[in-house]
Amino acid sequence: MGLLKEVLLLPAAPVRGTGWVLSQLVAEAERQYYDPGVIQHALRDLERELNDGLIDEAEFDRREDALLDRLEAAREQRHRGQ
């Protein structure tokens, strides 16, 4: 039955392969999005923008809050994974 199933599903192989590739891309994007090193680098860049006068305090606070939320989520995710 396994061989028959594979033969019948053969035309759907490109779709299944595409689904696998997409799931791998999403997993890698999430890994990078929640990488604490990337978030900390973004926080340093944000502080540099504030010090250089490229953004005001309100923009800094808004973006810093978003980055700190990501960092907290990354730590929670890492804690659950252990």
Number of helices: 4
Using the CA coordinates, give the radius of gyration: 21 Å
Low-confidence stretches: none
Percent of residues in beta strands: under 5%
Largest sheet descriptor: none
Binned, the helix content reads over 70%
Distance between the termini: 40 Å
Shape: elongated
Give the topology string: H per helix, E per strand.
Answer: HHHH
Structural class: mainly alpha
Features:
single chain; 82 residues; mainly alpha
Description of the structure:
With 82 residues, this protein is mainly α. It is built from 4 helices and no strands. The mean pLDDT is 89.
Short synopsis of the structure:
By secondary structure, the chain is mostly helical. It has helices at 2-9, 13-33, 36-51, 57-81.
Topology:
Elements: H1 2-9, H2 13-33, H3 36-51, H4 57-81
Helix pairs in contact: 3-4
